[in-house]
Amino acid sequence: MLSDEIYQQLAALVGDKKITREATELSYWGKDSTSLIANAAAIIFPQNIEQLQAVVQLANREKIALVPSAGRTGLSGGAVAAQGELVVSLRDMNSIKQFNAVDRTVVCEAGVITADLQAYAEQQGLYYPVDFASSGSSLIGGNISTNAGGIKVLKYGMTRQWVAGLKVVTGAGDILDMNKSLLKNNTGYDLQQLLIGAEGTLGFIAEATMRLTRSPENLTVLLLAVPSLSALLQVLAHFQAGMELTAFEFFSEQALQKVTTQLQLQRPCDEVGQYYTLIEFEAKDEAIVDQAMALFEQCLEQGIALDGVMSQSQAQYQSLWRLREEISSVLAQWQPFKHDLSVPPSQQGEFLLEVEKIISELAPQYQVIWYGHIGDGNVHLNILKPDELNKTDFDLSCKLLSEEIFKHLASYQGSVSAEHGIGLLKKDYLHYSRSDLEIALMKGIKQQFDPNGIMNPGKIFS
């Protein structure tokens, strides 16, 4: 814990009102969206990169462990201060500083809310495409630190693709100004890429130059009911061969039942499918709409789709997306044990069936809910807690299941964390996706950026 003397030194760097150790504040700022319990020493809110650098330099001198904090929407414990660390919140570094219309870039501090960047891009007649359910509260610095993905990866890729430059305070307290918006820059190692997805273990993202793109035209959704996983993947192949898609999401009939029942929403189709796919595309003209309908009709004729509906208005577009986007919040009441998994899209059907078999054999009392971004190979597995089972026993049981699931995942050379990061919750499983040599090299990189080991200690690996 921090001594009074060190606390006062920190207060002198940022101001008395920008540091706190009040109990409710420690609990609020010291954790993310997991159920892990916070045990932070204090919360500090630097206002600019100079203050941030000064905090890191003091932390190095005094060997103070630091936990970076952005929007705290993470699901792997990456922003949890569990061992008396000092939480450094980037909340107040939230300025959008500079827009370049020619380069289509915007410079923003790490504390800018994702939705605010999206709105700013729209004001300039452009588009920031990285989008997910927590865009209204997640921060750009956190998105970069976790290489956030979301619902439009199929067309636009991950956050990594949209970072044109970074200004970083390393774990050693140095400032790196990297890449500076260049599209071509083959001058040795791309250090910027190491910071993206590093979960705050190498340094603090202080400022980012983000790329923007043209706004999509008339986004339209086609929701299909399909009879099986194999049919779902055939529909994906069918539509990808026939037109450009911006998203291809899926969810199970069980997921749809939960959402429509809990939120009193209308079911989208008359026919009941085992799964549903939500296909998004730009309906720039009638020819594209006609092509989408022709593909849909072919799927019906081949029996790989049972029914479907296409959005005819912005309101209907939003209502169809809601069926997918509300799943996570609706399932929260069952305290699900979550997995964020990735295997090649072509192998999804076989892999999902194997996972269901594992759970049905080892824990038949558990209900399984699937949904996710199947178009890019990322699926979310939710195992719902039975009412009669306490949370501790349920989590222990699910951890044992996880080992069996990850053994199968490794045979597919898949990822134990497609988009949520490793943090605290998944570091024991990292070896299923990374070799011993890779992990050793990552630890060596951390030593170079963070020689005193003060940056988010215990995250990714011990």
SSE inventory with pairings:
Layout: H1 4-14, E1 19-20, H2 23-29, E2 42-44, H3 49-62, E3 66-69, E4 86-89, E5 96-100, E6 105-109, H4 114-123, E7 126-127, H5 140-146, H6 153-156, E8 163-170, E9 175-178, H7 191-195, E10 203-211, E11 213-214, E12 219-226, H8 229-242, E13 247-252, H9 253-263, E14 275-282, H10 286-302, E15 307-310, H11 314-325, H12 327-331, E16 337-342, H13 348-362, E17 367-373, E18 378-384, H14 391-411, H15 436-449
Parallel strand pairs: 2-4, 3-4
Antiparallel strand pairs: 1-2, 5-6, 6-10, 7-11, 8-9, 8-10, 12-14, 12-15, 13-14, 13-17, 16-18, 17-18
Helix pairs in contact: 1-3, 8-10, 8-13, 13-14
Q: Describe it for me?
A:
The chain is α+β, with helices and mostly antiparallel strands. It folds into 4 domains: 89 residues, Uridine Diphospho-n-acetylenolpyruvylglucosamine Reductase, domain 2; 119 residues, Uridine Diphospho-n-acetylenolpyruvylglucosamine Reductase, domain 3; 110 residues, 2-Layer Sandwich (Alpha-Beta Plaits); 102 residues, 2-Layer Sandwich (Alpha-Beta Plaits), CATH 3.30.70. Helices cover 36% and strands 20% of the residues. The strands form 4 sheets. It has a 7-stranded antiparallel β-sheet, with helices on both faces. The protein has a 5-stranded antiparallel β-sheet with strand order 5-6-10-8-9. A 4-stranded mixed β-sheet has the order 1-2-4-3, with helices on both faces. A hairpin with a 4-residue loop joins strand 5 and strand 6. Helix 1 packs antiparallel against helix 3 and helix 13 packs antiparallel against helix 14. The longest helix is centred in the C-terminal third of the chain and has 21 residues. The two termini are 20 Å apart.
